[in-house]
Write a structure and sequence with these properties.
Strand content: 25-35%
Number of domains: 2
Number of strands: 8
Helix content: 25-40%
CATH class of the largest domain: Alpha Beta
Structural class: alpha+beta
Radius of gyration: 19 Å
Strand order of the largest sheet: 1-2-3
Oligomer: single chain
CATH superfamily of the largest domain: K homology (KH) domain
CATH architecture of the largest domain: 2-Layer Sandwich
């Protein structure tokens, strides 16, 4: 159907390669859009706090996919959305084997509707449910994804 490319670049530079020595900073480049982003490991894993980390990016990507799917469904259902803000939180937890995984992402969307047709809370919940089941990324992961 489609391909989505990213290029990852990392250089050790002058640093040693001991576990606590090598730099975690690297760059993601997205060739289609000519955009790039400096990223690093999370600070808890010796990363640079001034950079986004993969766990944040994963959380943002899932929340973004959910929002875009929600907007499409709301639009096709005749609702007008004026704004959508989310402060999503990804929760790292230990799996049964003791290794960490991003076990849960809590989305907290704040949505402003306008127009003659404004959905009830029950309809908004059903729009979220449908968006969750239609979101490409949510369909691709086993992480629990919730919204409130």
């Amino acid at each position: 159907m489609s391909e989505h490319r990213a290029t990852l670049s990392w250089q050790r530079g002058e640093s040693g390669f001991g576990y606590k020595e090598y730099p975690r900073q690297h760059e993601w480049a997205f060739p289609r859009s000519s955009q790039s982003l400096r990223v690093s490991a999370a600070p808890d894993y010796l990363g640079d706090a001034d950079c986004a980390d993969p766990e944040e990016a994963f959380t943002a990507a899932l929340a973004s996919c959910h929002m875009l799917t929600f907007l499409a469904i709301a639009s096709m259902s005749g609702y007008t959305v004026d704004s959508y803000t989310d402060e999503a939180v990804g929760h790292l937890a230990k799996a049964d084997d003791g290794k960490p995984w991003l076990a849960k992402i809590e989305m907290q969307p704040q949505i402003v509707f306008s127009g003659d047709k404004v959905p009830s809370e029950a309809v908004i919940a059903s729009l979220h449910e449908k968006a969750h089941h239609e979101c490409f990324l949510a369909r691709s992961v086993k992480t629990e994804i919730t919204w409130s």
